[in-house]
Amino acid sequence: MVLAGVAGTARAACEAEPAAALIDPETRLALPAGAPRTVALTLDACSGGTDMRILETLVALSLPATIFATARWMARNAAALDLLRAHRALFGIEDHGARHVPAVLGTGRAYGLAVAGTLDAVRAEVGGGAQAIAAAGFAAPRWYRGATALYSPGAIAVIEGMGFSVAGYSLNGDDGASLDATATARRISAARSGDVILAHVNHPERAAGAGVAAGVAALHRAGVVFVRLDRAQTVTGACRRRGGATA
Questions:
Q1: pLDDT at residue 3 in the model
Q2: Of 138, 149, 57, 56, whose CA–CA distance to 100 is shortest?
Q3: Which helix (H) or strand (E) holds 6?
Q4: 5-241 CATH
Q5: At the N or C end, where does the chain have fewer CB atoms within 10 A?
Q6: Structure pTM?
């Protein structure tokens, strides 16, 4: 059985990093000896629409997943929220922020997005996302994943100080929904036991979503167990540095 909880924190894992670094903490499942091959599928819902190819596959196969939703995505996707409410046992809804702003201090951009810049802006982004989730009728989120999954060390300290665990990942399934269906399916179907898979559910116009659906279906056929982050024991692993300044 996988028990809920977090072993260690992103702040502790990355405390040696310089303040100017951009970091990308790794999160994995902590599985007991002899556990079956088990993964956690996490789906970012940043903005835009909803890829029903993914959600319908998960519902049809009864596969749990964790949705990291922004307030702006929730404001534009009422039908998807109805589906998530109708399947509360399958889907955990966690915080992806209010406006999809990277939790990065200073100036510049991260993957083309203007960064938060200040700790007050990080607090507003995290708090605004959590408030939107509660207002939509879901349980209070316990996890936060910032836009781009990049963080300044000081921002991580603030996020964890607000009571959230920072949700990293160990397998990037779709490269921001930029991969084709074949490459996405290949990556996801090769997930190792303990992987926290990152993919996206907000780009129905892209081919990657078909690959996410195919990849999780392949894992299901292989007998892989799926768990939600809020029902899993996790561990924060490597603190991956992504450079000292935004691009």
A1: 45
A2: 149
A3: strand 5-7
A4: 3.20.20.370
A5: N
A6: 0.92
